[in-house]
Amino acid sequence: MRLVLVLGDQLSLDLSALRKADKGSDVVVMAEVMGEASYVPHHPKKIAFTFMAMRYFATDLRAQGWSVAYTRLDDPENTGTITGELIRRAAEKGAAGVVYTEPGEWRLIDALAEMPLKSHCLSDTRFIASHKEFEDWADGRKQLRMEYFYRDMRRKTGLLMDGDKPEGGKWNYDHDNRKPAPDQVDFEGPLRFAPDEDVLVLVSERFSGNFGDLRPFWFATTSAQAQEQLAHWIDGGLPKFGDFQDAMLNDQPFLYHSLISFYLNAGLLDPLAVCQQVEAAYHAGNAPLNAVEGFIRQIIGWREYVRGIYFREGPDYTARNGLGHDRALPDVYWGAPSKMNCMTQSVAQTKEHAYAHHIQRLMVTGNFALLAGIDPAHVHEWYLAVYADAYEWVEAPNVIGMSQFADDGIIASKPYISSGNYIHKMSNYCGSCAYRVQDKTGENACPFNLLYWHFLDRHRARFKSNPRMGNMYRVWDRMEETKRETILREADQWLAKLDQGAAV
Ligand code: FAD
Ligand code: DLZ
Ligand code: SF4
Questions:
Q1: Model confidence over 394-418: pLDDT tens digits?
Q2: Separation of 340 CA from ligand 3 center, angstroms?
Q3: 165 domain residue, yes or no
Q4: What is the dihedral of CA 79, 81, 83, 85, to 10 degrees?
């Protein structure tokens, strides 16, 4: 007999390791371990979600006839690590070896590869593109632009294809997906499910020092519940998802977003099946093409593409720091008071829900970190810890590459930076902010305005010949010299206050 490892983000009945195993003789190993629960200070909701979903999945497996050796966190025999648990269970059961599906983080891939047990690692087939397909696509290309990869995934899956042409004549309807914040949101947001109280008690006892609110806990924790959430969103959220994808509103964390990344990444939902359901809503006339195409692009385009980059670039990717940024992560990321309403809003809902939507992650907390020159390793660790959908394969390329440009432009052709103007256009945050978004200098000037020029000025050598940034430098160069000096001086003063821990 062999052991079959199922990790906390591998909760899929069609997992390659389960398909390879023999239900009659093999034993599934699942383990809640401190090693996984504390390698970054995870948000308590993320830990509770993982443990609850693991426990329900083990129950499902047993109901299907599998033998499951499940270790709870407070089990006195618990060795504290995945490899420790496999070694312990192998001795206990007299197992000949271990079958497992490749984990989503190099850290664990390396640990399993070094384990003193005979083991067999299988590809994770829950994705649309295999590593080889991504490599074949990437090899020989000068630039790895997501858009071209995405088109191949459309052709491969047949999603939104009209023969060999894209549905509606265009591959990408992003142009229609940039509407500013609506006055009112007519979708009530995600479904709320009852939690497993035992897990909440365990997590509150063991992880009370971690950033984030454990209660109220409302995530789906089984695949049937995740499916309910998907159906609820397709019905009520999808029709306006495209229009308001980039919008942000005070005290409205969810808008028209699907809130399914937790479930997809843990294995409770299958990406292709999700996209097929969304496509069916379009064909049934229940959702417009810009919403449906925009959503499918995020899943079969961005999600697959970032995974390809993570595995192609290798374990040192998370240590990259192409712009040499070295500022410590300011306390505002851990909920310290700040005068910047956009940051306060984005961090507060992250603390409450272990969730923020894409534009908050990219254009508020990510943009601020990049403009302020924060060490990307710290930024990476923060995102990996605070979001319930964060595993390195998806988080690191989004943070190190897309958001912080620390990979020197593998993912982004130019840094995602903006002044306060973009946030003002896409949200109602600025209206209730202590700073004035219209002010470019002076005591009340929006820090994003000051830091935007500070970033461009300090990285001039790196970006001046980037064709997509020439305009920005022309505007800067045309400014009066005294104004430029004032901006740089005030930005330096503001950053000094930030470093001193002032509530700026
Ligand atoms: P929706 O807005 O409804 O989008 C639908 C789905 O598309 C998501 O569920 C997700 O599976 C997929 N998706 C969208 N954008 C991306 C993307 N850029 N990369 C991968 N998948 C995408 N996503 C994660 O799943 N885990 C992370 O750790 C993560 N970290 C991020 C860090 C930064 C700095 C940025 C800019 C983005 C990050 N994303 C991450 C991508 C994106 O922000 C989340 O997938 C999305 O906000 C999840 O919310 P949702 O399910 O409501 O998504
Ligand atoms: C995120 C997480 C947490 C908090 N705890 C566990 C755990 O106790 N046991 C487990 O098998 N998996 C856990 N996970 C998910 C793993 O960290 C994830 O499988 C790896 O990071 C690889 O993506
Ligand atoms: Fe953010 Fe500046 Fe707007 Fe305040 S004024 S909310 S700091 S962009």
A1: 999 999 999 999 999 999 999 999 9
A2: 5
A3: yes
A4: 40
